[in-house]
Amino acid sequence: MSLNAKKSSALIALSLVFLVLAAAFVTSSSNGKPARDAIPLVNTNFLSTATVRQSYGELVRLKADLSDFDCYACHEKGKPPVIRFDTNQFIIIPKEHGNILMGHGSHNRNNNCFNCHNELNLEQFQSRDGRELKFSESTQLCGSCHGPTYRDWEGGAHGRTGGYWNDASKTTRRNCVECHNPHAPKFPGRQPAPGPHSLRAVPPAAETHLAH
Ligand code: HEC
Ligand code: HEC
Ligand code: HEC
Ligand code: HEC
User: Fold this and answer.
1) Over 50: is that where the pLDDT of 211 sits?
2) Which atom of ligand 3 is nearest to the CA of 139?
3) Ligand 3: distance of its center to the CA of 21 in Å?
4) Residue nearest to ligand 1 atom 30, measured at CA
5) Does the residue 16 lie in any domain?
6) What pTM did the predictor assign?
7) Does some domain include residue 115?
8) Candidate from 85, 116, 146, 178 with most ligand 2 atoms within 8 A of CB, to mutate
């Protein structure tokens, strides 16, 4: 074979390879774009803006059942209920109050009902500084013992602030009991919401790098 013939047969072979490749690209279904993972739908509980609890104030607003707060439907006026303790000095919760799980603070430091409820008027709270507060004023009650957190809350650093950046008169702050159960206030751990989906595919390694 002459040098020229060798050259042209190599060129023909190469052209064939490129033709086959071109055909493969044209017929492949990905249409030139890399395949992207389907974006899963987000669990709708992550989209809810409601607080984790409904406070007394919220129940009033919703005209919901308030019988739990009608203390004197069961108790006698002028006769404070007697708090009973078991042999380990844990408060015994009567079955009529079976919905209450008491556990306020480490070592149940603040479990005594009358640290908050007024024994002489069950339908009111009593704060550490001697104020008598209505059921709808429980944030003041919490604030009477949790001064630093209360100041953070007033300043918008604790809890949830809502409203408009250019109109301070419309600022709202959610009350403590809309997030904390007053009887067992430790905030339970929550599942984190999924991260955002980027428009362009980021390789998983880069994604973890960005997240930290
Ligand atoms: C459905 C009836 C009912 C309602 C409503 C009710 N109680 Fe009671 N409560 C009871 C009974 C029964 C007991 C146990 C007997 C007793 O101590 O009188 C009790 C006991 C208590 C005790 C003593 C708890 C203990 O662990 O020993 C406190 C404090 C108390 N109630 C506060 C309240 C307050 C405050 C309200 C209103 C916000 C209220 N109760 C509403 C029925 C009720
Ligand atoms: C740290 C303060 C605090 C202590 C201690 C406390 N409570 Fe309460 N309790 C509250 C607040 C605040 C509310 C109203 C919460 C709301 O707005 O949802 C409430 C609501 C209630 C209610 C009406 C709603 C319901 O959950 O049934 C009852 C009854 C009650 N408490 C009984 C008791 C009893 C009995 C004890 C003692 C075993 C006790 N509380 C201890 C602060 C306290
Ligand atoms: C009479 C004083 C008093 C009042 C009123 C009071 N607390 Fe407390 N709170 C305490 C004490 C004491 C502890 C325990 C601190 C510790 O263990 O170091 C505590 C602990 C807590 C904790 C931390 C719980 C944990 O286990 O990490 C939260 C949250 C809390 N309180 C929220 C509230 C809320 C919300 C209110 C109003 C409904 C409230 N407190 C009213 C005294 C009070
Ligand atoms: C919008 C919800 C929300 C509101 C409103 C809210 N808290 Fe909390 N609070 C939380 C969460 C969530 C945590 C737990 C933070 C954590 O575990 O890191 C917490 C933690 C706490 C703790 C534990 C100690 C700490 O500072 O980490 C205290 C005490 C407390 N809150 C008191 C209050 C009081 C008092 C109010 C009202 C003046 C209030 N909170 C209002 C959500 C709220």
Assistant:
1) no
2) 37
3) 71
4) 81
5) no
6) 0.86
7) yes
8) 116
Ligand 3 pocket member 146 (CB < 6 A): yes
Decide: 183 in ligand 3 pocket, CB within 6 A.
no
d(CA 195, CA 212): 12
Structural domain range at position 154? 52-178
How does pLDDT run across 26-80, given as a tens digit for each residue?
Answer: 887 656 666 777 777 888 888 888 899 999 999 999 999 999 999 999 999 999 9
pLDDT one-digit tens code per residue, 90-128 = 899 999 999 999 999 988 889 999 999 999 999 999 998
* Residue 59 in domain: yes
The domain total for the chain is 1
Distance from the CA of 46 to the center of ligand 2, in angstroms?
29
Whether 42 maps to a domain, the answer reads no
